[in-house]
Structures are given as C-alpha cells and as structure tokens.
Design goal:
The complex is a heterodimer of chains A (about 300) and B (about 325).
Chain A: H1 10-15, H2 23-32, H3 35-52, H4 54-57, H5 89-125, H6 127-142, H7 145-157, H8 165-176, H9 179-192, H10 196-203, H11 208-216, H12 221-244, H13 256-260, H14 266-271, H15 277-301
Chain B: H1 2-28, H2 45-55, H3 61-73, E1 79-80, E2 85-86, H4 87-122, H5 127-141, H6 144-158, H7 177-214, H8 217-224, H9 229-252, H10 261-266, H11 272-281, H12 285-313
Antiparallel strand pairs in B: 1-2
The chains are: A mainly alpha (about 300), B mainly alpha (about 325).
C-alpha cells in the first residue's frame, strides 16, 4: 500500500481546528499554493544565486580589457563574445546583475524607510506636521517620474564623481518613490491609533517614538512588504532606463541598463544582437519574477482583493 | 460642486509654490550658467560680468527666484540656448508631434483594454482571463526601451516592414493623405510599445471595476427577473462599470500633451520627450526648466480633473 504524505494545504489546515496558523505562515501557505508565485521565486532564486556567486561562475574579470580580442562573436571561450575593449561579455552581465540588484534593493530601502517614517509621523501627529508632510508628498508625486529623475540625474550627476553615481541613482529613485506608500501608511495609522491597544500604550507611558515604531508600524508590515516587492521591480526598471540613457550608473561599472547601451550603435543593433539582447532579457526576467511574487504577496496579505 | 472646485484649487496653491521652488532649486545647482551662450568665446572678463548682470545672476538667489516666477507667470520662459529663440515659441510644434502619437496610442489602448477587461471579468478565472492576466504581467515587466529595440531589430532590420525611426520619410514631399499615412507608418512601432506597456494597468482596472459591479444586488435581481445573461451584462452591468473608467479617461486627457522621454529618444520621434533629452545633453537649462514645469503642470491638471470627476460621480467626497 502506498502512503501519501501531503503537505498541509490551506483548506486542510482550516478544517483542523486545533492547528494554529500565524499570519506569516498563512501568507507562506497561500504563496506556496500559487504557481505563478513559485515560478517567480525560482527565477528570482536563480538570479540571486548568479549575482552572489558571479566570481566563482566565470574565470574572467569584468574589468580586464584586452584590445587584441575586441568585438568577438560568441564562441566556446567567450559564450556571449567580447565587447569593444575585449572584455568577456557574459562576465559583464553576471557582474551587472549584482549592481542592478543592489541599486534596486537600496532604492527600495530608501523609499520604504522614508515612506514608513513620514507616513507614521504624519498619521500619528496629524495637524500641521501632517499637512506639511502630505503637501511635500503631493508635490513629489505630481512631478512626473522619468523626466524629473533624468533632470536631477543630469544636473547633480555633473557634480558627483563617476564612481559615486551609483549612490546618486539609488537616492534619486528612493526619494522620488515614497509618497504613495506614505499616504497608505498614514491612512492605516489614522485608524490604528484610535484602537484600544494604543490607549493601553499611552496609559503605560510609552514614548511617541516607540509607539510609532514598535506598536503602529508593525501593524502595517503587510503593506510595507508588498510595496517593497513591487517597488523593487520599479526601481530595477528605472535604474536600467536611466543607465540606458547614459544618466544612470556610468561605465566601466556594468549594469544591465548600461550594457544595453551598445544597441544605440546602429551596427551593433543590426549585426551583434548578442551584445544587447541578453541584458534586456535579464531585466525582463528579474522584473517579471519580482512582479509575480509581489502580486501573489498582495493577494496573500489582503484576501479581500479580487484575484 | 462649485464650492468643491474652488476649495480644490486653493488646495493646489501651496503645492504649486513648493514645486516651483524644487524645480528652480535643482536647476540652480546645475554646473555652469547660461552666460557663455550669447558671448563669443573670446569675451573679456568685463563683458562676462556685464552679461551676468544683464541676466540677473549677480542678485541673491531668492530675488532670482522671484524674478523667474514673475516672468514665468507672464508666459516668458526665457530663451533657449540651442535654438536662440524664446522657449515658449519653440516647444509648440514638439508638443503637437507628441500629441499625435499619444492620441493614436490612447485610442488603441482603450479600444483594446475595455472590451478585454469586461470579458475577463465576466469569465473570471477562465482560461481566457488567466491568459490576459499573465499577458499583462509580462507587459508590465517588459522594459519599454528594450521592447522598442527588439521591435526595431525584428520589424525594421530583419523584416523591413516599418521605418527604423523618425516621423517622416526623409525627402518625401507629400501632402494630405500620403503624408498622414507616412506618419502613421512611422508611428506603428512606438505605438505598439506604448499600448502594450499601458495595457496591463487599464485591463486590470476595467476588470476590477466590472467585477465590483457584477457582485452587486441589482445584478442578481436582474438575473432573477429572468433577463438574458447578455442583457444583464451589457445593459445593466457594463454601463455602471464604465463610470470609473470614464473618470480615468478624463484625467488622462492632460497627459496627451506630455511625451515619452525614452521611447521618443529611441525612435527619434521629434516630440516633447525627445526635446527634453536634447536639452539635457546640451545643457539648455531654460528649456529643461520649462519642460519640467510643463510636465508637472499636466500632472497637477490631471489630478485636479480626476478629483473633480470622482466628486461628480460620488457626492460623498469632500476636501478636508
């Protein structure tokens, strides 16, 4: 006789009245049952693995030039050929992934940090502080993202060293993307602060800072995580677009965005597709996997949503 | 309603002020100033000082800001250093070029996404619905500039169906229908990128608003009256689902005058987005400032129209 061992599904766990499912476990189970999210997680896992272990996966150095072997077609030795300085292109893509993911991660951290903090303060204190912060948020969200990011990057980029441009891009993307989240968090805090546990916190004499950080914000983690995931997809996309225009991370540091820059040369666009198609596919896969995970997370965190 | 609009307008004043300070401040941080453009490279230091004085750069920053605001309000946006002409006169044809492209994309996105969204909602969780939801996730995840390059590679280089870039065939001295068709032909590739990129959002929006309507009690009533499913969906549900969509169309209208910076640059479409890139690369700060102001005004206008639209549909909405 065959004994089937089943992993607990959501419905099975709900039937079993004794089982206690915490909110995190609930989210994880919902996520596991979602095929799209699993696909996303697998793609993301591969990308993270490749980015982290890039130095062990390739024998070449991404900055080591060799003018004897420029613009070679893909071969057994150089799987994706070499670029205009004879650097191994596949190696550049692997290391480019590192930078692109880093920029995405840091920009999102800046955006989430600012959004949570400003939304928290705004919602908790209300009054004129709220008024000013929300007006500033409104201004930033009225500035159209791409034109303004391009302008700031061009203007401030001229004052920053080439190797520091990376950080400039992270800060630009981060500071332009917090208002949506701040408004969301503010709305949540407005209703949360009227609840009984906040009265208890006040009665215990807990400081405002602790009340916001330890008691109010943790109740909005669901929104923060969904926002961070989808925001990361947006940040990777923005970085690659800025770098593609030559206003983002500057060569020789490789990122997926500035590697596609080769396509702006008509000859490369027409006859050397291996020099611009692979990084584009990488961006697409990274953004796709994050979006798949983000969508599934949104549904897992908020069961009321329509999917 | 009038009271609401007035209050909403008053609400915008601080936003506009902070925004103008932001734009002015950022441009002031730009390296170099416009002094050299009207002078010969051999200008003496005295001439440079005189030019700085003429442009008002010797005054304190807040005075420069106030002068700039004063001039801008009167419609004087300064001279472009690339074109040696007033900015306000230069940007008009570029806005018009962007507008042409945007209108075509706008029409196609709505014509495709509204019926699709409705059908997806009616057949929720069917294969059709799942296909389009996967398709729209792919659409959102595709970087526009890479998609544009792929299309150029496939449909202009490998299979030469459409022109690689530009807005007109060079040297074509046509007018009327031929010229219009020629421009449409140049529009196909950028339009595909823009429509597919925007499709996902619209599709989801239509689908959700239709799903919300279908769940309502009056739809159940209509069904229990014995009405045909077609009548229930297309007569009773569809009309109500259209309300939020029409509101959204209203607030997209100002965006028709805006431009796609990256796509216009790739396809060399002489629109307002491409001119922003040119102005940035060539450090034409008056033009950059004017264009940013223009883009921001369009967004503010869009938000205003959206709020008024929502208030018109839902009388419960008020300005706090």
């Amino acid at each position: 006789m065959k004994i089937e061992i089943k992993k607990p599904t959501l419905s099975a766990l709900q039937e079993d009245k004794e089982a206690v499912i915490g909110p995190w476990k609930m989210i994880w189970i919902r996520l596991r049952e979602n095929k799209m999210a699993l696909t996303g997680l697998i793609i993301m896992g591969v990308i993270i693995f490749i980015s982290v272990f890039a130095p062990f996966l390739t024998p070449y150095d991404p900055y080591q030039y060799d003018f004897g072997i420029t613009f070679q077609a893909p071969s057994m030795k150089h799987w994706l050929g070499t670029d205009e300085m004879g650097r191994d292109y596949l190696t550049r893509i692997l290391y480019g992934g590192r930078i692109s993911m880093q920029v995405g991660l840091f920009s999102v951290t800046v955006a989430i940090g600012l959004g949570a903090l400003i939304g928290g303060i705004s919602g908790y204190y209300g009054g004129w502080i709220d008024n000013i912060l929300m007006r500033v948020g409104e201004v930033i969200s009225s500035l159209p993202f791409m034109p303004f990011a391009i302008t700031i990057s061009a203007v401030l980029g001229a004052r920053v060293k080439e190797e520091h441009k990376l950080y400039l891009i992270m800060i630009i993307i981060g500071t332009l993307s917090w208002p949506g989240l701040a408004r969301l968090i503010r709305g949540q805090i407005l209703s949360l602060r009227e609840q009984e546990f906040m009265q208890a916190a006040t009665a215990l004499g807990i400081s405002d800072r602790k009340k916001i950080v330890k008691h109010l914000l943790p109740n909005t983690y669901g929104y923060l995580i969904v926002n961070a995931t989808l925001g990361m997809a947006g940040a990777i996309m923005s970085e690659s677009a800025l770098s593609f225009l030559g206003l983002g991370v500057a060569p020789p540091v490789p990122t997926w965005g500035n590697l596609i820059l080769y396509a702006r040369d008509m000859y490369t666009l027409m006859y050397r597709p291996w020099l611009w198609v692979p990084p584009g596919i990488c961006i697409f896969l990274a953004v796709l996997s994050i979006n798949l995970i983000g969508d599934a997370l949104r549904d897992a965190v908020d069961p009321k949503s329509n999917r | 309603m009038l009271k609401y609009i007035c209050r909403r307008l008053l609400h915008m004043i601080p936003v506009v002020i902070i925004m103008s300070i932001c734009i002015f401040g950022i441009m002031k941080m730009a390296p170099g100033d416009g002094v050299g453009y009207n002078l010969s490279p051999k200008a003496t230091p005295e001439q440079k000082v005189a030019e700085r004085k003429r442009l008002g750069y010797d005054r304190p920053v807040y005075e420069q800001y106030l002068r700039w605001v004063g001039r801008t309000v009167q419609g004087d946006l300064g001279d472009s250093s690339i074109y040696k002409q007033p900015v306000s006169r230069i940007i008009r044809p570029f806005i018009w070029n962007s507008f042409k492209l945007n209108v075509v994309c706008f029409l196609f996105s709505y014509l495709i996404s509204i019926p699709l969204g409705i059908i997806c909602a009616v057949k929720q969780y069917s294969k059709w619905d799942n296909f389009w939801s996967v398709f729209s996730t792919f659409g959102i995840s595709m970087p526009g500039f890479f998609f544009a390059l792929l299309l150029i590679y496939l449909f202009s280089v490998k299979i030469p169906l459409f022109p690689i870039n530009g807005m007109q065939t060079p040297g074509l001295n046509a007018s009327g229908m031929t010229a219009a068709l020629d421009q449409l032909n140049h529009m196909v590739l950028p339009a595909i990128v823009i429509v597919i990129g925007g499709l996902a959002g619209l599709l989801r929006y239509t689908r959700t608003s239709m799903l919300e309507v279908i769940k309502q009690d009056y739809i159940r009533t209509a069904r229990s009256k014995g009405l045909k499913e077609k009548v229930v969906i297309y007569k009773h549900a569809f009309r109500n689902a259209l309300i939020p969509i029409i509101t959204m169309i209203g607030f997209e209208i100002p965006a028709l005058f805006s431009g796609f910076v990256i796509l216009e640059t790739i396809f060399l479409w002489p629109g307002i987005g491409k001119i922003l890139m040119d102005a940035i690369y060539r450090r034409d700060y008056n033009l950059v400032m004017a264009l940013n102001l223009f883009f921001a005004t369009l967004t503010l206008l869009g938000n205003l129209l959206a709020d008024i639209g929502y208030a018109a549909v839902d009388p419960r909405i008020k300005v706090e």
